[in-house]
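ERR on first pass: missing label on line 2. Operator R.T. fixed the label and resubmitted. Corrected input:
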Amino acid sequence: MSALLASLFWMLLFIGGGIYLAYQRVDLRTSTVAACLALIAYTIFGDGSLIWKFLLWLAFGAMVVPNLIEFRREKITKPLLRIYRTMLPKMSDTEREALEAGSVWWDGELFSGMPDWDRLMEYPAPTLSEEEQAFLAGPCEELCRMLDNWDIMHQRGDMSREVWDFIIANKFFAMIIPKKYGGLEFSAYANSCVTAKLASRSPIASSTVGVPNSLGPAELLLHYGTEEQKDRYLPGLASGAEIPCFALTSPEAGSDAASLIDSGVVCKGQWQGEEITGIRLNWNKRYITLAPIATVVGLAFKLYDPEHLIGEREDYGITAALIPVDTPGVEVGRRHMPLNVPFQNGPTTGKDVFLPLDCIIGGPEMAGKGWRMLVELLSVGRAITLPSTAAGGGQAAAYSSGAYTKLRKQFNTSIANFEGIGEALARIGGYTYIMNAAVSVTAGAIDQGEQPAVPSAILKYHCTELGRKVCNDTMDVHGGKAIMLGPTNYIGPGYMATPIAITVEGANILTRSLIIYGQGAMRCHPFVLRELHAASDEDTERGLIDFDEALFSHVGYGISNLARSVFLALTHAKFSRVPLNTPTRRFYQNINRYSAAFALASDFAMLTLGGALKKRELLSARLGDVLSSMYLASCVLKHFENQGRRATDLPLVEWSVRTLMYQAQEALHAFLRNHPNRWAAAILRLFIFPRGRTYSAPSDTIGNKIVKLMTTSGEARDRLSELAYTALEPGNPLGQLQEALELFEQLAPLEARLRQARKEGLIRAEDFGGQIAEAERAEVIGQNEAEKLRDYHDKVVALIAVDDFATDEFIRKRTAEGAPPVAVQADRANEPASGKKSTAKRKAQSA
Ligand SMILES: Cc1cc2nc3c(=O)[nH]c(=O)nc-3n(C[C@H](O)[C@H](O)[C@H](O)COP(=O)(O)OP(=O)(O)OC[C@H]3O[C@@H](n4cnc5c(N)ncnc54)[C@H](O)[C@@H]3O)c2cc1C
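pass 2 clean. output:
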């Protein structure tokens, strides 16, 4: 018995100690010393045979070798590096530039398998300055009030002139432009709040305002423009005298934008009466937002210098330039119709447009750097405009659906009381909470100087997808009310706009399949990029040293992830360290667990599939889903802290994290199930799911709590939709729904009296109006109470009403007054019948 106990003790010491050291990521040297001490103790006190002890010392020798740095470098790393170089996947310049763009932030921690939560928690909660708050409460609310989706979409085909002038006069297009150029110089967080508020009211306005504040000429100039270019364009862009657009997409180059064939050839030409060296440009772009009314086109094209007028190279690659539309040969003016959401969007072409070299953003020395500029800026812009639009739409959906389902009755009860509707409502609320959290936490990080490239792609994909799901559920819970278009339909416009967000700024299937994990694996992995750089270092000696260091750290990281993954899975992560002792504690621990499992699976995928992983889109998409779920769940936890840990929000937090981590579990399962190497995947499964798939999706009970929160007026409902435009005024359904919901709550006791009276046979009418009249006559309720009920009833009837039209009203009357900025409008009077406009003078005179 005592021999058995002794054996158990030594086993525990060696195996448990080994797992502990690996779990804690104790460095190699300390681990070797610890192993040595344990072995000495075992050799002296252990009762194993001499052969067994000798074998253990032999194994220890293998552990010592990596400590002999010079030796391991020559004998182990050098041959491995040779093999690694032959295996290196070919990388194009554009891929390399995409990989190097932006910074690594919380995504890197999740990739580490051991996230340092303190790093996330230290980030301050994003706040708005007084000026930004005043803008949201002032011009932004006012603009929302002015917007009328029905008029824009079905009558005018554009926002009214009054609205355009208001947008420009209040500098909605200049949120990112510094004050010294006349802009508003808002934070990323403020920019996202304005976009979300506008999106809660009108997709046309949020798309229109989003573009100049996202990837466009202003952003490009601010980061890469010469001082001269900034002085020339930024004041005009801030005042609205210049209307920008950015043209990258062409018919042959959509998702594969880098394959564009639009060209600029360096040559001699005439410019203002003199012969100069300039660029002759030809392009054919489509889908360009604001192009029809732009005065300046940011253009991406490939630059060639066949006569070597500016240097040795002939082919410079993708370059970005600013093209005034009044340059001869430029054509803008025609419009596309993006799904009946008529924001200004159209094609632009240029034929033999000649401009001086200083049209290149950043001047001639930035020739060929266009792709890098774009991907760098995308690493910020993609996290703001479209995710905030989706979040704003979600907020409006949550607010309206919560109230509508309470007010709308079928089978003698609010439809919110039906479990099926409740399930959809919980999704609307939960997904909206996730979007809110992701947008505000990521915008906060951007304001702290991060350029989070991978999180931007995560937000772009997931927020727009969640937005689409929320929209579908909102349609469903509203039934026919959402389908009948007309001035009173507040859901249809958002529903029609949803696919636009899915398609732009990197279409979603591509973003999920190629970008999130493709970029993340290289960019956020703690060692892969270092190994890649070291292997391609021209200084081979330095390359060997760096590669050796990265490789052995990588091996240690792999061993640690193996230990962490299995230990955290076996213990349900109950002992893992987290920063807070709050009701959300377990959620941090669950993310810790999946972070280790993900890091392990990720290394496994790269090791077993190598460069082929790029082509196995579904495998890499699933790993990307795990990373995304962890990122979004972390944002939820941080958002909950940022908002002051409101207990009433706990159901939303629990629902969100559970949903996301359940998805992470299922994505990992699907990854293992579909990995081509079945044996290796089966072994890996033992380390990731040693107890099977034990994580559960949110329960119905949590869902019911969310339904209550969404359908009852109060701070939690308000906070979930805090940016939505909810003012109580004619034409704003959100305000009217809230008003009716409050009446519903106040008058609930009266309604109960009516129901009781009906049961007792005091009143007999089937309809609510009739019941009120009878109850008043039977003195079940007083006159005052009857009036209140009648008023409430009228409001509900108006809210559930839909529009109908005389047949001849179906013929749309688009007024010519659909109105871009005044000056552009004035110019358009001289347009050729085709609507195409060459060498147009589009400079605004009125700004
Ligand atoms: C309303 C609107 C506004 C726009 N505004 C602008 C603008 O201002 N400026 C600008 O330059 N562009 C703009 N665009 C263009 C937009 O960025 C492109 O539409 C987008 O990049 C996709 O290109 P595509 O439409 O040609 O689709 P395609 O490239 O033909 O893609 C079709 C489908 O194939 C998928 N796909 C492609 N490659 C892969 C792959 N490797 N793996 C998996 N799936 C793949 C895509 O995800 C997509 O689902 C706008 C587009 C729209 C619709």
